[in-house]
Amino acid sequence: MSIIEGQASRRVAQGDRALPDVDPLSGADIPLPPPKGDSDLRGSTPDDVEPPADALLVVRDLKKYFPIHKGFFSRHVGDVKAVDGLSFFLRKGETVGLVGESGCGKTTAGRTILRMEEATSGEVLFDGKKVFTMDRHDLRRLRRRAQYVFQDPFSSLNPRLTVGDALREVLTVHRLARGDAAQRRIGELLEIVGLSAEHGVRYPHEFSGGQRQRIGIARALAVEPDLIICDEPVSALDVSVQAQVINLLQDLQDEFHLTYLFIAHDLSVVEHISDRVAVMYLGRIVEIADRDDIYRNPLMPYTQALLSAVPVARPGHKRERIVLRGDVPSPANPPSGCPFHPRCHHPLKDADCAKIVPPLADKGGGHFAACIKVPLGSAD
Ligand SMILES: Nc1ncnc2c1ncn2[C@@H]1O[C@H](COP(=O)(O)OP(=O)(O)OP(=O)(O)O)[C@@H](O)[C@H]1O
Ligand code: SF4
Ligand SMILES: [Mg+2]
Q1: Is 374 contained in some domain?
Q2: Residue 16 belongs to some domain of the structure
Q3: Cα(333) to centroid(ligand 1), Å
Q4: Which ligand does the CA of 330 lie closest to?
Q5: CATH classification at residue 56
Q6: Is residue 251 part of a domain?
Q7: What's the CA gap between 83 and 278, in Å, rounded?
């Protein structure tokens, strides 16, 4: 991360004639100018911070690039940098909300963490064990202990199996229950998620969107997991049903001491459920902090813009709307320096922003933000 990457990205900037950073006579690198304003690049990053003893999941510098091939010989011409250096941890029993616009890499991050996609580089530790080098036995255990709930559970439910049979399949595959014990467990699981045992004989198409999501949650719970990655679990639901499913997830968390990585683009939902929030932009986390710190004092201009569109619950409080200019740039060709610079509204934005990759630095009290114009200590 950070300054070294900043130098790497200056090489990207070399193609951009507006930003020469190599001496044309000697060919030597011209040192970066110091960032202007009050900024300071020396804050510690999440990679410098020792994860807490109760961390269930630790993600270090995770990258997932999808290669782009072109032409008759299928030449490798570039990469979609869907996840580009993600570092964070999840404590046992906490919920971290992962937010960001469509295409910023949330789903790819979730899937790569659970080895549903092969990582390009980086490390993930689940309960202290390295996920990417797990043998079959440990991977099998991981598949039990860490579950994934999808936005559209319908697509992950076999339309030809009744809901009861779908749950039985999970119980059988993981050798958790058979026969009458499985039947009892199926009824119990359906009741835990607010359905009834009789629903087990029905097929997925006979359920509403909210009920299907409850079935998806029941299926995840069947294996008694520790971690659930919830990927936009309520985005496709009506607002009233969203609240019911969110309340259910919270009740289940209390009852079964679950840990959630809650992926969403709706910041109101994330505020409701999260203990901490991580904001992603073009494959990177650009801000991460306790929920209240993020919502009351967003530091990164991108977070400020996202939050400006969220209505404030407190009476008398109103946020000034910051309209994000333009679309999210392509992760196959991200901007040099700060990836947000083409859209940034910060009054101190200058040429440095297109040269220096801002490290995700602790701006005070464990509030990390990736902006060279936000001084250290801003969050204190
Ligand atoms: N299998 C794949 N091959 C190539 N590119 C991919 C693949 N999967 C995802 N991508 C690209 O990676 C980037 C991140 O996609 P991802 O689905 O992780 O984003 P997201 O934040 O989950 O978006 P959304 O909010 O729309 O679900 C996108 O540019 C996407 O097109
Ligand atoms: S463009 Fe500059 S001011 Fe804007 S977020 Fe990036 S580093 Fe901060
Ligand atoms: Mg997604």
Answers
A1: no
A2: yes
A3: 14
A4: 1
A5: 3.40.50.300
A6: no
A7: 14
Please report, for the chain, how many H helices and E strands are present, in that order: 11, 12
> What is the Cα 297 distance to its own chain's centre?
20
Q: Whose CA is nearest to atom 8 of ligand 2?
A: 371
- Residue with the smallest CA separation from ligand 1 atom 29 is 103
301 CB near ligand 2 (under 6 Å): yes
- Please count the structural domains in the chain: 1
Distance 83 CA to ligand 1 centre (A): 9
Report how far apart, in Å, the C-alpha atoms of 184 and of each of 82, 117, 167, 188, 196 are.
43, 34, 11, 6, 12
How far does the centroid of ligand 1 lie from the alpha carbon of residue 348, in Å?
Answer: 31
In a domain, 162, yes or no: no
Domain that holds residue 322: 2-127+264-369
Per-residue pLDDT 10s for the chain (380 aa) are 333 333 333 333 333 333 444 555 555 555 554 444 444 566 788 888 889 999 999 999 999 999 999 999 999 999 999 999 999 999 999 999 999 999 999 999 999 999 999 999 999 999 999 999 999 999 999 999 999 998 887 787 899 999 999 999 999 999 999 999 999 999 999 999 999 999 999 999 999 999 999 999 999 999 999 999 999 999 888 888 999 999 999 999 999 999 999 999 989 999 999 999 999 999 999 999 999 999 999 999 999 999 998 877 666 667 788 888 888 899 999 999 999 999 999 999 999 999 999 999 999 999 999 999 998 888 88
